[in-house]
Specification:
With 1441 residues, the protein is of the alpha/beta class. The protein is built from 52 helices and 41 strands. The chain starts with a strand and ends in a 33-residue tail after the last helix.
Length: 1441
C-alpha cells in the first residue's frame, strides 16, 4: 500500500539539500551536497536518487532557498521562503529557542522568537557567509574544514573587515604579507563573520536567551560556533546545536508541504525528466567574446609578437640584476643581464607565505647560477616588499607603480597608458612627457579581480586557465554588472540558478572585471582618454578572455607582453640595474646565508601611544626583527620628531581634546557625558567650555579603538553607514559603562558659514542627525536610566543658539543669563581653537618654504583626525618625509574660483574646495583627500576637488578608508604620489592653469521657442499629467520613457562610483536620450528640480553637467527648477497658470494611484480596474490642458464614485505600504516593478501621496524659523504653499471621506505630530521625518506590512528609514517592516527573497486575524481604513526632483 511522505528541497547558493519525512516528522532520507555551479543537474540527480526508494509512494513537495524561486517555476512545485521554512523546523524540533542564527552559502538570517516572530535576512552587500568562508579558505590554501583546524591553534585575533569579502581579502592579504600566522588569520576570519552577522542583522536588537545555530557553516565548523558563543557570552545551557542543523531549512519545507496536495513520487520523476531540457535562463546576455574559432586564432596570432629578449642563464657571463615582485597572491622574480635580456623567471602562487616562497626562489636561482657568478644588485616591489627586503637584505625597495612603468617602457618606449590588473589590485598610469602624470589605483570596494576569478574557478573544482578557456567561445555571456566582487558573486549565483553555463559565466566575469577597471577605477567616458600607446599587464591579462574583453569594451587595441604577469619583477630588475654603481656589493643574502635562514613570528601590543596596536614581530635567525601592524612610526622604533616634520592631524587632535574637567567638588550641577564622535572633533571645545561655565563636570568618551567600535556593534541599525557613524554607538556605550547618567549629543543642522560665497553651510545627514539613530537603537540608554539629550541646534546664529539651549535646559532651572554667558564664552573658545589651527598651518607653510620641503594637505572632515578612523595615515606621510596639514589650516588662504560646478552646500566640504584651490597654486604642496566608505557626499566632493587640482596641472589622490586598518593600499598610493612628485620636480613640471571652470549654459528666451526640454521619468502616473500641464504654458517638454538596462549602464559610466542609484538613473536617462539621435542637440535642453537641502540630491544637476561635458554634450543647457532660486534662467519663468495646472496634475496622479491600487487586487472582472483607470487618464489629461477648476472638482468626485462602485470580490488580502526614497518608491524600473510583484504575490499595495512630499518641504520652513534661527519670510512662504496645496486637495478629501472604500489623506500637521515622539522635525535630509511619519500613519491605519525602499547606502535612510525600524517595532509589535536596498548591481533574487519573507509574515498575520478584529480590509469592505495617503515622496534622492 502506498504511503505518504513529505519532501523538502533546499536549493542554496552553493549546496542542494533534500529531506524526506514520514507522517510523524521523522527523517527517513536526507542528502546534502555541493552543486558546483551546475544547479539544475545537481537538483535532478539528487531528486532522482531520492525517488529510488519511494517509487510506489505519494509525496507532498515544497522547495525553498535562494535558488528555489527558479525551481518552483520549472518543476511546478510550491515555494516557501527559507526563513519561514527554518522557523517551522525550530518550532517543531527545538521549541525552547529564543534566537536562531542560520548561515548558508550566501545568506545569513536571524530569527527572534517572542510574542511576534521577528525574522531578518542579510542584504546583498553583506555578501555571503559559506561562500565567503570558501573564498577566505582558498586564500590560505585550504578548505573550510582546514580553516576550522587552523583556528583551533590561534593565539591572537586580528581585526578583519566584517562588511564583505572584498574588504576581508584586502585585510587578510596584508596580514599574510606581514607574516601573521594562518592560525590567527583563520580565527580572525571566523570572528569577522560573527561581527558581520551581529552588526548587519541584529541591527540594534540584542541576541539573548537560548540561541540555536543552524545551517551548513555552523554545523560543520565548530570553531565558528565557538566565536559566536564567546562574543555573545552564552552559557552551555543557552547554546542549541541540533543534530541535523545543516538540513533545518529543507526540513521546514518538508513540514510545510503537508498543507499542499500530494502527488505520486513517479509524477515528480516525470517532471524531472522533462526539466532536463527546460531552459530557465533569464539573464541579460552580452556579445560572445569570439564568434568562432577563426576569430580566436586571428586574435592569438596578433598578440603573439610582444616578446621579451631572452638569454641563457648557464652560459651568460657578466652582471646579474634581480627583480622580485611580492604581489598580493603571487610572487614573481626576474633575473636579467645588463642588456635587458631575461635569464630566469618565476611566477607562482605564494600560498599565503610570500617570504618562504621568495627564499625558495632565491635558492633555485643560486643553484642555477654559473660558478663564480654574482648578483650585483637586487630590487623588490609589491605588497610583501618591506618584510622580504628586511628579511633577505634586498638592496632596493620601490613602489610597484614605478616598477610597472619601467617594464612597460621596455616594450613600448612611447607608452602613454598602462593598465595592470593583478590578484587584488588594479593600477592605471597615464604617462605624459616621459613622466607619470597620474596614477589611479582601485579602491578596496572594487578590488580582488584576479583573485576573484581564481577563487570562483576553485569553487567549482576548476583551474583558472581551464575556467577562462570555457568562456572564449561561450555563446551567451552573462551580464554581471560592474560593481564590486560581492555584488558580482551574488549575480553569478543568480545566473547559475537560472541555467547559465559555466562558459557563459566565465565570459561574463571577464567582461565585469574589465568594466570595473574602465568605468569604476579609471572612469573613462571616451576610449580616446586611454591614449594611443596602451600596455596591459598583470597576471590576469595572461588570459585571452580578459584581454579580449578589454579590447571589445574599450574599442582600443593594446600591447600585451608575453610576460604580462612578470612586469612588476621585470621593472624591479630594471630598477636594480639603473641603481647599480660600480663597486657596489649587494646586501642580498648569499647561498650560504640562505641555508641558515629561518624566522618565526610573535605578537605583542605596542603600548607607546593611544592606538596600542597589535604588532606582528618577525624574528629572523640572525637576531634582526621586522615589525608590522603599527599605525605610526613608534611601533617600528622610528622617531619622526627628529625629522622636524609637522603633523597637524596630531596637533589638532590634541588641541581639540586637551581640556581638563572640573573636579567633582566644583561641579555643582553634576556630570555630563559627551561622546568623542563626528562633529565633536570640531565642536568639543565649544561644548566643554559651555558646560564648564554652567558648573558641569564634562566627561568625554575614551579614544576611539577597535574595542570601542565593538562595544556598540550590536546596536548599529544600518550595515552600510560610514565607520565614523558606527563608532558613535561604541562611544555612547563607553559613557554608559562608566556610569554616566546624562549624555549630551546635539544634532547640529547648520555650522558657521566660513566661505562667504558658498551656497549653504549645512552638515551632512549623518553628522547632523545621527544622535537620533543612537536614541532609537540603544536600549541601554533606557535600561540604565540615562538622560540622553540631542536637541537640534544651529551654530551659525548665536542668538538662536542661546534661545535653543535655554529651551533645552529649562528643566535644569538654568537662567537665560547663565546660558547666554556660557554661550558667549564657548563661542570665544571655539574661535581661539580655529585661530590656533590657522596659525599652526601658516607656521608650517613658512617652514616648508624655508627648508625647501614638501607638504601634504590631508583633506577630510574634522573626525578624520581620529587615529582609529584615519588608521595612522598622517604619521605614514611623515615617515615619507613630508609635513601634514589639515584642510582647515590652509582654507582661509585660498581664493576659490566661483561659481563651482557643484552646489557648495556643506561647511566641511567648503573647506575641501578652498584647500584644493590653495594647493593648486603651490608647487610645494599636494592634496590627499580622505573619504570614508559609504560617504555619499564625497560622490560630489571628490570630482569637484579633482577638477580644481587638474585644472591647475596638479595631481589628485583619494584614499578611501573604513574599518579596514591595514595601510598596504594607502602606502602604495602615497609612495606613488611621492615618486610622481619627485619625477615632476626632475622634469620641471609646475602648476599652471590648464582649464578654466566651464561656464553654465543659460536657457534663454529664444531657446524657449525652439528647444525640446527633456525631463527625467520619476513617477509615470504623475508625470504623464505634468507633461501636458507644462506644455500648455508655452514650453515643449518631453518626459523620458522608463529606464532600461542601457540607461543604467550609461549612468554608471558617467557618474561617480559612490553616487546613489537615483542619480545613476537620472543621468543615464539623459545621456541615453541624447545619444539616441532622436533630438537636435542644438535645440535640446534638460530640466530638473533642485531643493537646495541637506541631501546630495541637490547636486544631481552638478552630476548631470559633468556627465554632459564628459559625453560631449556640454552645449546642452540644464534648467534648475528650485524654490530657493539657486539658479536663474530667463527662458523659464514661473506663473500662476503653470502652478495651478501642475498642482492639478499631481493631485490627479495621487488620486488615481490611490483608488487604482485600492481596488485592483480585488477586481471581479479581469482588467476592469485598469480599464477604468485608462479612461480617466484621458479625461484628466484634457482637464489639465484646460485648467478649468470646476471641471477638476467634478472629475475628482466622479473618479472616486466610479472606483467606489467597481465590482469587487469579497476576499481578504494583506495590505503592504510602500515608502522610501522618492524615485525608487515611484519609478517601477528603479524598484524592479515592486507594485506589480506585490500584487502578483497576493497583496494590496498602499502608496502615500506625492503631494505629501511637497507639503513636507513647505512645513519644514516653520521648524527652521522656530528652532534654527531662519527667516520668518521663508516660514510665511511655506505656510502659503501648504494652504495652496490643501485648497486643491479639499474636494478630493471630501469625496474620499464620503466613499465606501477610501479614506482621505491626513494633514501635514498631523504627520508632524505623530512622528515627534520618534523623531525630531529637524530631520530634513531627503524624505527626512516624513518617511518615518508615513510608516507610523500606515501602521496606525492598519497597514502593518511595509516595504521601505532605498538606494544602497542612502544617507538619510540610515536615520529615518532603517534607523527607526527598531523603535517602530517596539511601539507597534505587529509592525512587519522590510528595508530593501536597490542598486545597479543588487541581486533581484535577494530582493525578492526578502520581500517574500515580509509577505510570509503578512499572510500569517492575516490568517490569525480572520475573525475580523484586525484592520486588514477585505475587497468590498465598508471600512474607511484605507490608503492613508499620507504624504510622500520626492526623496532623499528626492532633493533632486
Amino acid at each position: 500500500m502506498a504511503q505518504l511522505f513529505h519532501l523538502g528541497l533546499d536549493v542554496g547558493s552553493t549546496t542542494v539539500k533534500v529531506v524526506i519525512t514520514n507522517q510523524n516528522d521523522e527523517v527517513v532520507y536526507s542528502k546534502y551536497r555541493r552543486h558546483l555551479s551546475d544547479v539544475k543537474n545537481s537538483i535532478i540527480d539528487i531528486l532522482m536518487d531520492a525517488c529510488e526508494g519511494f517509487k510506489g509512494d505519494n509525496i507532498t513537495v515544497m522547495v525553498t532557498g535562494s535558488g528555489g524561486l527558479s525551481v518552483n517555476k520549472w518543476l511546478g512545485i510550491e515555494f516557501i521562503q527559507e526563513v519561514v521554512a527554518c522557523t517551522k523546523s525550530i518550532e517543531n524540533y527545538i521549541p525552547k529557542t529564543d534566537v536562531a542564527i542560520e548561515l548558508g552559502g550566501e545568506d545569513a538570517k536571524i530569527t527572534y522568537f517572542d510574542v511576534n516572530i521577528d525574522q531578518r535576512m542579510n542584504s546583498s552587500c553583506a555578501g555571503g557567509t559559506g561562500a565567503f568562508i570558501d573564498q577566505m579558505a582558498s586564500l590560505l590554501e585550504t578548505d573550510a574544514a582546514g580553516l576550522n583546524e587552523l583556528s583551533k591553534k590561534h593565539r591572537a585575533i586580528y581585526p578583519i573587515a566584517s562588511r564583505c569579502g572584498v574588504f576581508a581579502k584586502t585585510d587578510i592579504q596584508a596580514l599574510l604579507n606581514q607574516g601573521a600566522s594562518k592560525e590567527d588569520i583563520a580565527a580572525s576570519i571566523f570572528q569577522s563573520i560573527v561581527n558581520q552577522t551581529i552588526s548587519g542583522l541584529a541591527c540594534g536588537r540584542p541576541i539573548r536567551g537560548n540561541v540555536a545555530f543552524l545551517g551548513g557553516p555552523l554545523h560543520f565548523l565548530p570553531e565558528l560556533r565557538k566565536r559566536f558563543v564567546k562574543t555573545l557570552k552564552l552559557k552551555d545551557e543557552q547554546t542549541i546545536v541540533p543534530k541535523e542543523a545543516q538540513l533545518f531549512v529543507a526540513l521546514g519545507a518538508a513540514i510545510a508541504s503537508k498543507n499542499t496536495e500530494s502527488i505520486p513520487f513517479s509524477s515528480l520523476m516525470e517532471r524531472l525528466l522533462r526539466a532536463e531540457n527546460a531552459s530557465i535562463d533569464d539573464s541579460h546576455k552580452l556579445r560572445p567574446l569570439f564568434k568562432d574559432e577563426e576569430e580566436l586564432n586571428e586574435f592569438r596570432a596578433k598578440h603573439s609578437v610582444s616578446s621579451i629578449k631572452r638569454g641563457d642563464l648557464k652560459s651568460y657571463k657578466g652582471d646579474y640584476f634581480l627583480g622580485i615582485d611580492a604581489g598580493s597572491t603571487t610572487t614573481k622574480a626576474v633575473l636579467m643581464d645588463k642588456d635587458n635580456r631575461m635569464l630566469y623567471s618565476y611566477y607562482g602562487n605564494n600560498k599565503g607565505n610570500p617570504l618562504n616562497l621568495t627564499v625558495e626562489i632565491l635558492k633555485d636561482i643560486y643553484s642555477k647560477l654559473p660558478e663564480g657568478a654574482v648578483i650585483r644588485n637586487s630590487a623588490i616591489t609589491g605588497y610583501g616588499e618591506e618584510l622580504i627586503k628586511a628579511a633577505l637584505g634586498v638592496d632596493v625597495g620601490e613602489v610597484e607603480t614605478i616598477a610597472h612603468y619601467k617594464a612597460a617602457k621596455l616594450f613600448l618606449p612611447d607608452v602613454d597608458f598602462i593598465l595592470d590588473i593583478g590578484g587584488q589590485d588594479m593600477k592605471c598610469m597615464k604617462i605624459k612627457d616621459g613622466a607619470i602624470e597620474s596614477i589611479l589605483l582601485n579602491e578596496a570596494c572594487s578590488s580582488g579581480c584576479g583573485s576573484f576569478i581564481e577563487t570562483f574557478a576553485h569553487s567549482i573544482d576548476m583551474g583558472v586557465k581551464e575556467f577562462l578557456e570555457l568562456g572564449l567561445l561561450a555563446e551567451n555571456p552573462v551580464d554581471l554588472g560592474s560593481r564590486c566582487t560581492v555584488f558580482m558573486n551574488s549575480m553569478v549565483k543568480q545566473a547559475q540558478k537560472e541555467g547559465a553555463t559555466v562558459g557563459d559565466i566565465s565570459a561574463g566575469i571577464t567582461y565585469s572585471v574589465i568594466k570595473n577597471a574602465l568605468f569604476k577605477v579609471i572612469k573613462i567616458r571616451n576610449p580616446k582618454e586611454l591614449g594611443k600607446n596602451i600596455v596591459v599587464q598583470g597576471g590576469t591579462f595572461y588570459n585571452d578572455a580578459v584581454l579580449r574583453s578589454f579590447e571589445l569594451i574599450s574599442g582600443r587595441e593594446a600591447v600585451r607582453p608575453d610576460i604580462a604577469g612578470l612586469m612588476g619583477a621585470l621593472g624591479a630588475a630594471i630598477i636594480a640595474k639603473e641603481n647599480y654603481k660600480d663597486g657596489y656589493e649587494s646586501k642580498l643574502l648569499v647561498k650560504e646565508e640562505l641555508e641558515k635562514f629561518s624566522f618565526e613570528t610573535s605578537m605583542r601590543r605596542c603600548g607607546l601611544c593611544g592606538n596600542n596596536c597589535l604588532l606582528t614581530v618577525n624574528h629572523f635567525s640572525d637576531g634582526r626583527e621586522y615589525i608590522s601592524g603599527n599605525r605610526c612610526e613608534k611601533g617600528a622604533g622610528v622617531d619622526v620628531s627628529k625629522q622636524g616634520l609637522p603633523n597637524l592631524y596630531e596637533y589638532k587632535y590634541n588641541r581639540t581634546f586637551r581640556y581638563k574637567p572640573l573636579s567633582k567638588d566644583d561641579a555643582a550641577r553634576g556630570e555630563v557625558g559627551i561622546p568623542r564622535v563626528l562633529n565633536m572633533y570640531e565642536n568639543y571645545p565649544f561644548w566643554f567650555t559651555f558646560f564648564t561655565e554652567l558648573k558641569f563636570r564634562v566627561l568625554i568618551s575614551r579614544r576611539s579603538s577597535r574595542a570601542v567600535y565593538e562595544m556598540g556593534i550590536g546596536t548599529i541599525p544600518s550595515e552600510s553607514v560610514c565607520y565614523p557613524g558606527k563608532l558613535a554607538h561604541g562611544h555612547v556605550m563607553d559613557l554608559i559603562n562608566r556610569g554616566v547618567k546624562f549624555i549630551f549629543y546635539p544634532c547640529i543642522f547648520y555650522e558657521e558659514k566660513e566661505q562667504k560665497d558658498a551656497n549653504n553651510h549645512l552638515n551632512c545627514p549623518i553628522v547632523a542627525s545621527y544622535p537620533e539613530t543612537i536614541k532609537n537603537n540603544m536600549e541601554e540608554l533606557k535600561e540604565n536610566n540615562v538622560k540622553f539629550m540631542n536637541p537640534f541646534l544651529s551654530l551659525d546664529n548665536k542668538d538662536a543658539l542661546k534661545e535653543g539651549l535655554y529651551k533645552a535646559f529649562e528643566e535644569f532651572g538654568i537662567s537665560k543669563r547663565e546660558i547666554d554667558n556660557a554661550v558667549d564664552k564657548a563661542w570665544v573658545e571655539r574661535e581661539n581653537v580655529k585661530k590656533d589651527i590657522v596659525q599652526k598651518g601658516e607656521e608650517t607653510l613658512r617652514l616648508l618654504e624655508k627648508e625647501g620641503k614638501k607638504g601634504i594637505v590631508l583633506a577630510g572632515r574634522p573626525y578624520h583626525i581620529d587615529p582609529e578612523i584615519n588608521h595612522g595615515i598622517a604619521s605614514l606621510i611623515n615617515t615619507l618625509g613630508m609635513a601634514v596639514l589639515t584642510e582647515d589650516s590652509v582654507a582661509h588662504l585660498a581664493d576659490v574660483q566661483r561659481p563651482l560646478r557643484v552646489v557648495d552646500q556643506w561647511t566641511y566640504h567648503s573647506r575641501l574646495y578652498a584647500a584644493a584651490s590653495f594647493v593648486a597654486k603651490r608647487d610645494d604642496l599636494e592634496l590627499v583627500q580622505l573619504n570614508s566608505f559609504g560617504c555619499g557626499l564625497d560622490a560630489v566632493t571628490c570630482d569637484q576637488v579633482q577638477e580644481i587640482l587638474n585644472n591647475n596641472n596638479k595631481m589628485y589622490t583619494a584614499l578611501k578608508i573604513d574599518e579596514v586598518n591595514n595601510l598596504g593600499a594607502a602606502k602604495i598610493r602615497l609612495r606613488s604620489l611621492k615618486a610622481a612628485m619627485e619625477e615632476r620636480d626632475k622634469n620641471g613640471i609646475k602648476h599652471k592653469v590648464r582649464n578654466s571652470p566651464a561656464k553654465r549654459v543659460v536657457f534663454t528666451e529664444d531657446m524657449r521657442k525652439e528647444h525640446t526640454i527633456l525631463i527625467p521619468q520619476m513617477s509615470p502616473i504623475h508625470f504623464q499629467f505634468l507633461e501636458e500641464a507644462v506644455n500648455t504654458c508655452g514650453y515643449n517638454i518631453e518626459i523620458l520613457p522608463s529606464v532600461d538596462k542601457a540607461c543604467i549602464d550609461e549612468g554608471l559610466r558617467y557618474v561617480n562610483n559612490d553616487a546613489c542609484y537615483p542619480s545613476i538613473i537620472v543621468v543615464g536617462q539623459f545621456i541615453e536620450a541624447l545619444k539616441s539621435g532622436k533630438y537636435d542637440l542644438n535645440n535640446t535642453s534638460i530640466m530638473m528640480t533642485q531643493t537646495g537641502g541637506v541631501c546630495r540630491a541637490s547636486n544631481y544637476i552638478a552630476f548631470l553637467r559633468k556627465a554632459l561635458k564628459d559625453a560631449g554634450f556640454g552645449q546642452v543647457p540644464v534648467i534648475s527648477v528650485s524654490p530657493s532660486g539657486l539658479e536663474s534662467n530667463p527662458g523659464f519663468k514661473y506663473s500662476m497658470g503653470l502652478a495651478s495646472k501642475c498642482t492639478m496634475a499631481i493631485m490627479y496622479g495621487d488620486l488615481l494611484s490611490n483608488v487604482l491600487y485600492r481596488v485592483r487586487p480585488y477586481e471581479r472582472d479581469k482588467d476592469s480596474a485598469n480599464e477604468l483607470y485608462n479612461k480617466w487618464v484621458d479625461k484628466c489629461i484634457e482637464s489639465v490642458k484646460d485648467g478649468n477648476k470646476r471641471t477638476y472638482r467634478r472629475n475628482i468626485k466622479q473618479i472616486v464614485d466610479e472606483f467606489d462602485n467597481l465590482p469587487l470580490k469579497d476576499i481578504k488580502k494583506p495590505r503592504v505600504g510602500l515608502v522610501g526614497e522618492i524615485l525608487v518608491k515611484y519609478h517601477p524600473t528603479a524598484n524592479n516593478n515592486l507594485i506589480e510583484t506585490l500584487e502578483s504575490e497576493g497583496a494590496e499595495v498602499v502608496v502615500p501621496d506625492l503631494t505629501g512630499f511637497l507639503l513636507y518641504c513647505a512645513y519644514n520652513e516653520d521648524y527652521k524659523y522656530r528652532y534654527l534661527g531662519k527667516r520668518k519670510l521663508n516660514k510665511a512662504v511655506g505656510d502659503i504653499a501648504i494652504k495652496y496645496l490643501e485648497y486643491y486637495r479639499k474636494g478630493m478629501k471630501a469625496a474620499l471621506k464620503k466613499s465606501k472604500r477610501f479614506t482621505p489623506p491626513t494633514t501635514i500637521y498631523n504627520l508632524g505630530k505623530i512622528v515627534s515622539p520618534v523623531l525630531s522635525l529637524g530631520n530634513q535630509a531627503g524624505e527626512g521625518w516624513l518617511l518615518t511619519a508615513e510608516m507610523i500613519e500606515l501602521i496606525e491605519s492598519g497597514v502593518y506590512n511595509i516595504v521601505c525602499v532605498q538606494p544602497f547606502a542612502c544617507l538619510p535612510n540610515h536615520i529615518t528609514g532603517k534607523g527607526v525600524i527598531k523603535a517602530l517595532k517596539e511601539m507597534y509589535p505587529k509592525a512587519n517592516i522590510s528595508a530593501i536596498d536597490y542598486d545597479p548591481g543588487a541581486s533581484e533574487v535577494n530582493q525578492l527573497n526578502r520581500i517574500k519573507l515580509m509577505l510570509s509574515s503578512a499572510f500569517k498575520n492575516l490568517d490569525e486575524n480572520k475573525d475580523g478584529k484586525d484592520n486588514e480590509n477585505d475587497g468590498d469592505s465598508n471600512s474607511n481604513n484605507m490608503n492613508n495617503t499620507v504624504g510622500s515622496v520626492i526623496t532623499g534622492a528626492a532633493d533632486g526632483f
